[in-house]
Design a protein that fits this description.
alpha/beta, TIM Barrel, 7-stranded parallel β-sheet
């Protein structure tokens, strides 16, 4: 099986030759390994595609990722200030507005044109096109983008957003939600047109560590369901939520996603709930496992996860529970992918 065929089969609960394995994003980890900044990466002739693919190949990842560490740069069209020229660090993006009145002044009807004119977005689109040319149909070219709830939080600042959810009427929040949906939909569609065929939506603000199950049902999930039908042309869609997401698992059963990337959840329970609905990606802790344990310990943990799912259609993709921390040894990441390669049922 090719890497793409393997991932596709896992997401469709079909037999696999081995459990697929990948990292999530990895952009910050790569620029740290290279001792460069994201500005340096994006300024490369191909937008950094060859550099990224070299690292994904090095760790034997079954998916390559576009836009890692840069998914908030699109907020610059809304007035955010971005700093992404620090070596080995993620892009830092300020809120675009302090209140709903500031968001209401933005023109969501011209978002596509504004994105196409933004230099950092142009570089990411160049990266997507070049990456697709490099891997062809052998691997999925995945995109890291914000889910609409988290995109809304980033536009006004997460702490400010949390206060708005309690203080503002839901109908007043709609101007923010509508702009966030339009922004991420237009951005994702541009990236799909450039070569992305797997869309990864990150929703960290929807973590169980930040909002209750009721708030997730009231706000985050409806926004996701509203956005998904407007994303066109991708072959597969995954959702990632950080932290404790046990309460999210049943609610996602009727959501149009192909896989759920999770952290800090009992895998037996997750695989049981998700079976036949969406694949599970995860769940090795980025810090406590991927960065801190020995390669031998990581192999044992990953082998145990492989045994839980099996090869007959268990719907599992081995992956850290979130992005790799800076300083994670290459040998530790290889331990995960080598465990997947070694397990044969």
């Amino acid at each position: 099986m090719t890497a793409k065929e393997r991932v596709k089969a896992a997401m469709e609960f079909q037999p696999v030759d081995r459990i697929p394995a990948t990292i999530l994003d990895g952009g910050v980890w790569v620029v740290d390994q290279e001792h460069i900044s994201f500005a340096d990466l994006l300024n490369q002739e191909d937008g950094g595609a060859a550099t990224l693919v070299r690292y994904y190949d090095k760790i034997q990842s079954d998916i390559v990722w576009v836009g890692g560490g840069c998914y908030a740069l699109l907020n610059q069209i809304a007035g955010s200030h971005a700093v992404f020229d620090e070596v080995g660090k993620a892009a830092e993006v300020s809120p675009a507005a302090e209140d709903l009145e500031g968001i209401a002044k933005l023109n969501k009807d011209t978002i596509r044109e504004q994105l196409l004119a933004e230099p950092s977005v142009q570089a990411i689109l160049k990266q997507a096109k070049a990456m697709r040319e490099l891997v062809g149909e052998s691997k999925y070219v995945g995109l890291i983008a914000g889910a609409p709830f988290s995109a809304a939080g980033m536009l006004v600042g997460v702490q400010n957003f949390m206060e708005m959810l309690f203080d503002e009427e839901e109908e007043d929040l709609q101007v923010l939600f509508d702009y966030a949906i339009e922004l991420i939909v237009q951005y994702i569609n541009l990236c799909v047109e450039a070569g992305v065929n797997l869309v990864g939506l990150g929703d960290p603000v929807a973590s169980g560590d930040l909002i209750s199950p009721d708030m997730y049902s009231e706000f985050a999930l409806p926004l996701l369901k509203k956005a998904l039908p407007r994303i066109k042309g991708q072959e597969k869609t995954i959702l990632h939520i950080c932290g404790n997401t046990a309460a999210r698992l049943p609610e996602l059963v009727d959501c149009d996603i192909d896989a759920f990337s999770l952290d800090s959840v009992d895998m037996d329970k997750a695989l049981e709930i998700a079976k036949g609905h969406y694949a599970i990606m995860g769940n090795m802790s980025p810090f406590d496992v991927m960065k801190s344990k020995t390669p031998e310990e990581i192999r044992d943990i990953c082998t145990g996860l492989c045994e839980k799912a099996g090869l007959a259609g268990g719907g599992l993709i081995l992956m850290p529970g979130c992005d790799l921390p800076v300083g994670t040894p290459v040998e530790n990441v290889l331990a995960m992918t080598e465990a997947a390669e070694a397990y044969r049922g």
